[in-house]
Design goal:
18 strands; alpha/beta; Immunoglobulin-like; five-stranded antiparallel sheet; Rossmann fold; eight-stranded mixed sheet; single chain; 2 domains; 419 residues
Length: 419
């Protein structure tokens, strides 16, 4: 077990790691841009097709596409920046500035991407009122001028609040069909509860409880999923629809899901940076609370703790701290760089020094997550050296993104709990 106490007072942001390669920008878009006087027809076609526009790879590869983002400016538009998830270089933000077609209201920016890419993105639009472009403070101010894509009907709820975030999926990318409610599928019950907790200093913590659709005579103990950041996965993304569909299709057995609330950004950082008290809350208070209400399993091999980003780090820490309760870790884009990037990967260092524990790992990371990947690959090497022969590791074509995590979550649950 991991019993040592993690460092305190660590910085509340990932390390500033330079992007190792260039953003795959296309200087010549894969579409014909309009001449002055042709813009109405151009925008009408863009409305019909939806944006961004996807066209064949100008280099001739069947495995890649040209992806062109569009923004319709006004007479006041001074600059437009587009930021697809993790497809920008923070050292050179000008590389994500869109170009205006002279004499038109068309702003454009194109990338060459592999056909299985998907990602969310935002526009940042300067319509005046801030520092002049190219002057001190303009980039920081521009990041306050966020917009979604009005020509794209595909969107996901944003992590904390605000308008939805637009997304794009190329033809080879996994889709989100499993997340859509389907007629004729038996529906489980889901409700928010206040769970008492002394481990976190008293009071209660809100938790969403999913109960599967099972026959009244069902007597077998139910597997358990503990999924962190519950306030996003259930109220915003609708996890219950996914679980209903996977159970109906026989891809996973009926299970109970517990989704604790992260409360706010500050509480989330405190709880999900390998906090022993949070692991104790999950193991010693949340699971027993569920067992008092439902016939949940006590078998760690049928219990999954899952999370993303800091949640992935915390999920691994919980299982390694209490392997007798959590036998499966589903960590997506886990922040294993914590607390200090290449100089101090605290949890991985402890795995390297400890005996192998009865815990199975399912890990996935985005190919564009250049900050997280060095620590992720080191974790993979450490797990192999420590004898975790059943650990699963993979990299998907995307970034640090719920759009990717929702399909990765499906694959992880089916692998860990499916028959």
């Amino acid at each position: 077990m991991i019993t040592s106490v993690p460092p305190q007072g660590t910085p509340r942001r990932p390390p500033r790691t330079a992007r190792p390669d260039e953003v795959p920008r296309l200087r010549e878009p894969g579409i014909r841009l309009p001449e002055p006087g042709e813009t109405e027809e151009f925008w009408a076609a863009a409305v019909d097709s939806g944006t961004p526009l996807v066209s064949p790879d100008p280099h001739g590869s069947a495995d890649h596409r040209a992806v062109t983002f569009l923004w319709r400016g006004t007479a006041d538009t001074r600059a437009v920046q587009v930021l697809p998830n993790k497809l920008g270089d923070p050292r050179a933000p000008e590389g994500n500035l869109m170009e205006q077609v002279p004499g038109t209201d068309v702003w454009h920016w194109s990338l060459r991407l592999r056909h299985d890419w998907r990602g969310t993105y935002d526009f940042y639009v300067d319509e005046g009122g801030g520092p002049e472009p190219g002057t001190a403070g303009h980039w920081q101010w521009l990041r306050t001028q966020r917009r979604h894509d009005p020509l794209n009907g595909r969107a996901l709820p944003r992590r904390w609040d605000g308008e939805p975030v637009s997304y794009a999926e190329l033809p080879g990318a996994p889709g989100g069909q499993d997340w859509q409610p389907r007629p004729g599928v038996a529906r489980g019950g889901v409700a928010a509860h206040e769970v008492p907790t002394g481990k976190l200093g008293g009071g209660t913590r809100r938790v969403w409880l999913y109960e599967p659709p099972v026959d009244p005579g069902h007597s077998a103990e139910l597997p358990v999923l503990v999924l962190l950041d519950g306030e996003h996965w259930q109220p915003r993304l609708g996890l219950a629809h996914l679980l209903d569909n996977l159970i109906a299709d026989g891809r996973i057995p009926p299970l109970v899901a517990l989704l604790p609330d992260s409360v706010d950004a500050g509480t989330r950082w405190t709880d999900l940076t390998c906090r022993p008290e949070f692991a104790a809350f999950l193991a010693d208070e949340l699971l027993p609370w569920a067992a008092d209400r439902l016939p949940v399993t006590g078998d760690p091999a049928r219990t999954v703790v899952a999370g993303q980003s800091l949640g992935g780090l915390s999920a691994a820490h919980a299982a390694l701290s209490v392997p007798g309760r959590f036998g499966n870790v589903l960590a997506q884009s886990g922040s294993f760089w914590w607390p200090d990037g290449p100089r101090a990967q605290w949890l991985t260092d402890r795995i390297a020094r400890a005996p192998r524990l009865p815990v199975r790992f399912w890990l996935s990371f985005g190919e564009q997550e250049w900050v997280a990947l060095p620590a992720a690959r080191r974790l993979r090497e450490v797990l192999e050296a420590a004898g975790y022969d059943d650990a699963s590791y993979r990299e998907f074509n995307g970034g640090h993104d719920y759009l990717c995590w929702r399909t990765e979550l499906v694959d992880g649950l089916v692998d860990l709990l499916g028959s």
